[in-house]
Amino acid sequence: MTNATATKLHYDIVGSFLRPTKLKQAREALKAGKISAEQLRQTEDQAIRDLVAKEKRHGLKIITDGEFRRSYWHLDTFWGFNGIKHTKPEHGYFFHDEETRADSAQVAGKITFNPQHPDLAAYKFLHELTGDDAEVTTRQSIPAPAQLYAELIRGEKNRQAIKKYYSDEEELIADIGKAYHNLLIALYDAGCRDVKFDDCTWGMVVDDNYWSKRIQEGFSREKLAELYLKVNNAALTDLPKDLRVSTHVCRGNYHSTWAASGGYAPIADYLFSRENVQAYYLEYDDSRSGDFAPLAKVTLGKDVVLGLVTSKRPELEDPQTLVNRVKEASQFVPLEHLSLSTQCGFASTEEGNKLTEQQQWDKIELVIETANKIWK
Fold this sequence. Notes:
Elements: H1 21-31, H2 37-57, E1 62-63, H3 75-79, E2 82-87, E3 94-95, E4 98-99, E5 104-112, H4 118-130, E6 137-138, E7 140-143, H5 145-152, H6 156-163, H7 169-189, E8 194-199, H8 201-205, H9 208-216, H10 221-235, E9 244-249, H11 268-274, E10 279-283, E11 303-309, H12 319-329, E12 338-342, H13 357-374
Parallel strand pairs: 1-6, 7-8, 8-9, 9-10, 10-11, 11-12
Antiparallel strand pairs: 2-5, 3-4
Helix pairs in contact: 1-2, 2-4, 5-10, 7-10, 12-13
InterPro entries: Met_Synth_C/arc (IPR002629), UROD/MetE-like_sf (IPR038071)
GO molecular function: 5-methyltetrahydropteroyltriglutamate-homocysteine S-methyltransferase activity; zinc ion binding
Protein name: Methionine synthase
């Protein structure tokens, strides 16, 4: 069930948490053939039980499973659809000063929803832990449909694979939209009332360095923004009115480093004015995200969660600086429609960011305490 109070407390989280050492060790043991998949699942189950207890103890009202069953914030979801296969490209993603592990997703047939999708199974377990607690809302985070589209065209091999099964882009977009829509409905039927799309595509569009490469391929920034909007909105039609769908815009979050930079102005007319979500979780922890002026384009009545507290570094932000920045943002979005959070999760991949578990919770406590001062 959705707890309306929980979504109006004005403090929030993006969703991923640092993986416990025991869970990391279990994953390595599975790779080495020392334990079974069932034994890993049991370790995940216990780690999630422990996390949920900690989330409640720290005063969180939006509860997640920490994405403990995933290796990546996005690829595991992609691999869960029919018609998508796990591939190993020559390179991973290139972040600032670091390259990720090399994994990708490739079309291997017509894309459809899989009733055994791992995200659905993950949510059902979380719901069992929290479903009877009227004080909290359980959230499922999934990568945005546009993120899947971007992955499927990443590299020549991926683009060639599409041509084997899809004669035109419209058909591909329609199948992605339908697969996601069916996942949303399945989550809803399992009791989920809060889904968040995590989306790095917008962060790449606003990055001028990335964009200069796309120009050489004959792309238009406006056409690309229109395409990403179309793919995302294709999944957001005819949904139950009490299903809250939000989106988190990120510029990369891997091992405390980043992939892109640039303010929101180039995408504001698309993302803020036309994407059919109810709330925006926006990265704003440093100058790479630009100023607050583009928030003036956010549709009246929608919520904006300001990611002013970084999850990449352990140092705590100055509370008064956070208060001042929220006040500045309220010039463009009414204060009652603003909230505070970290700029991203603490472990978008299983590697996690470079801080300790205690420092992770210190960050969350800072968010809650500061929000309680601003919205008394």
